UniProtKB/TrEMBL annotation:
This is Guanylate kinase. The lineage of its organism: Bacteria, Bacillati, Bacillota, Bacilli, Bacillales. CDD domains: GMPK (cd00071). Belongs to the guanylate kinase family. It comes from Virgibacillus alimentarius. One of its GO terms (molecular function) is GMP kinase activity.
């Protein structure tokens, strides 16, 4: 019986850095991680599926969840809400499973207040120029929105100090391998396994 709680992993970084692509790649491979799907009021992008990429909500639905304290974090980003359902995260961690969040920087800072023991990973663009190219190449945003996202990205990069790890997303497969290494190393941390081994020793000595 596993008495240990799961570990909460938070992947965050500026808009356009490729968080979604990296997260999808991680979950395409065999993993024990549980992915917490975020909620948003933004429109679906081509190819996105409700309940897979996001839970898509109206503003009214979202604001009701805020009132009921049903969100672990939420942020308003370029006129849309993004948030993380609280119950799923807390119940899954209690059951001993690791939970993986892929969220905006503002949201990650809120999660840090509730879960300071979480493992915070900042996905960094190879350069601001590359970030601009990625945001522009989506083709789903107007020029004004692209500029807004870039301004936000500069501010978000300055918040990197609040994270435990930084991974540069120059190649998706390399970024994924680094994140998997972080997950493994967190499980091998002495303070995480110390309690289990002390208990084993106590059981053997009694």
């Amino acid at each position: 019986m596993n008495d240990e709680k799961g570990i909460l992993f938070i992947l965050s970084g500026p808009s356009g850095v490729g968080k979604g692509t990296v997260r999808k790649k991680i979950f395409e491979q065999a993993t024990d991680l549980k992915y917490s799907i975020s909620m948003t009021t933004r429109s679906k992008r081509p190819g996105e599926i409700d309940g897979v990429d996001y839970f898509y909500k109206t503003r009214e639905e979202f604001e009701k969840l805020i009132e009921q304290n049903k969100l672990l974090e939420y942020a308003q980003y370029v006129n849309n809400y993004y948030g993380t359902p609280r119950d799923y995260v807390e119940d899954t961690l209690e059951a001993g499973h690791d939970v993986f969040l892929e969220i905006e920087v503002q949201g990650a800072m809120q999660v840090k207040e509730s879960f300071p023991e979480g493992v915070f990973i900042f996905l960094f663009p190879p350069s601001l120029e590359e970030l601009k190219n990625r945001i522009t190449s989506r083709g789903t945003e107007s020029n004004e929105l692209v500029l807004n996202r870039l301004k936000e990205a500069r501010k978000e990069i300055e918040m990197m100090d609040s994270y435990d790890y930084v991974v540069v997303n120059d190649h998706v497969d390399l970024a994924v391998a680094k994140i998997q290494s972080i997950i493994q190393s967190e499980h091998c941390k002495r303070e995480r396994i110390e309690k289990q081994y002390k208990k084993i020793l106590e059981d053997e000595l009694t």
